[in-house]
Amino acid sequence: MPRIPGARGRLVDLPVAGRKRVLLAAPRGYCAGVDRAVIAVEKALERYGAPVYVRKQIVHNIHVVTELEAQGAIFVDEVDEVPTGAHVVFSAHGVSPAVVNAASDRGLQAIDATCPLVTKVHREAVRFARDDFEILLIGHDGHEEVEGTAGEAPDHVTVVNSPAEADTIVVKDPDKVVWLSQTTLSVDETMDTVRRLRERFPNLQDPPSDDICYATQNRQVAIKKVAKDADLVIVVGSANSSNSVRLVEVALEYGAKAAYRVDYAHEIQQEWLEGVETVGVTSGASVPEVLVQEVLADLAGAGYGDVAEVKTAEEDLMFSLPKELRQDLAGKRDERALGGRTRS
């Protein structure tokens, strides 16, 4: 199928037999926790001025990080890189108590943008550790969310990285063990891991409610429906975004002939579209919609202008800003109401 690059890198293709179309998954893109975290950094910059420091990437998306850097955010790996007394935002993935204490010791003004659904898992870890349970945390070693959750009860947590690893885990008391999970995993793979753990530890307890977040589940359900009819699936998201990477895996597992992840439209390889009639498109939970629209524009230039949205759920959840920002912004409004004079 002859193909040439068009203006501004857009994909241009000669017509082929059959109907070229795009199946656009919904829900996709930003979840409530990501939206809250990004707005928290923006509001902090507005309120305190640049620079505002952020420990780790606020969310796992290179475009979002670059945009916030342009506004004056400075991303650091650890709080000891932040000047004493400065404002620092904790990312949506959460932090351990050790990080909170380190920030306090340096006199930093911390804003906790941890997703409330991650905070829920932290609280579960604290509660089960207090009751002396061994916690099998299903997730990926080295991921910030896993480090934060494990840090709540380091003496009680064992990370289980995969279903295969479930077959080798050793516990002290098989009658007092519970599983928790990272919020951004593949639902199917997580439940396979749980099944294999339960075969070895029949009294394994479940978390009180789902740990995998609603947005991760919804995006996986949507791409499952799209994948069965897709010759190719394009997932917009960054390489360090766990939920974006999982979407590629789920698409392949549920029938897509091929699936790839891209940060930007210009990363789409011309050979991916050879012989393709139906392209599925979705995006991870930390991806702004503008990046999806750029992919759709490039696909339209290649002849895939027929776009049908495949919707499997409605999302209307919203989270309030971190309490530190809410309190400070409220105080600023009170100050303005008094004509700029502080209360006596």
TrEMBL record:
GO terms for molecular function: 4-hydroxy-3-methylbut-2-enyl diphosphate reductase activity. It catalyses: dimethylallyl diphosphate + 2 oxidized [2Fe-2S]-[ferredoxin] + H2O = (2E)-4-hydroxy-3-methylbut-2-enyl diphosphate + 2 reduced [2Fe-2S]-[ferredoxin] + 2 H(+); isopentenyl diphosphate + 2 oxidized [2Fe-2S]-[ferredoxin] + H2O = (2E)-4-hydroxy-3-methylbut-2-enyl diphosphate + 2 reduced [2Fe-2S]-[ferredoxin] + 2 H(+). Isopentenyl diphosphate binds at residues 60, 93, 143, 241-243, 286. Pfam families: LYTB. Its cofactor is [4Fe-4S] cluster. The gene is ispH. The keyword Transcription regulation does not apply. This is 4-hydroxy-3-methylbut-2-enyl diphosphate reductase. The active site is at 145 (proton donor). NCBIfam families: ispH_lytB, PRK01045.1-3, PRK01045.1-4. PANTHER family: 4-HYDROXY-3-METHYLBUT-2-ENYL DIPHOSPHATE REDUCTASE (PTHR30426:SF0). Keywords: 4Fe-4S, Iron, Iron-sulfur, Isoprene biosynthesis, Metal-binding, Oxidoreductase. Binds 1 [4Fe-4S] cluster per subunit. InterPro entries: LytB/IspH.
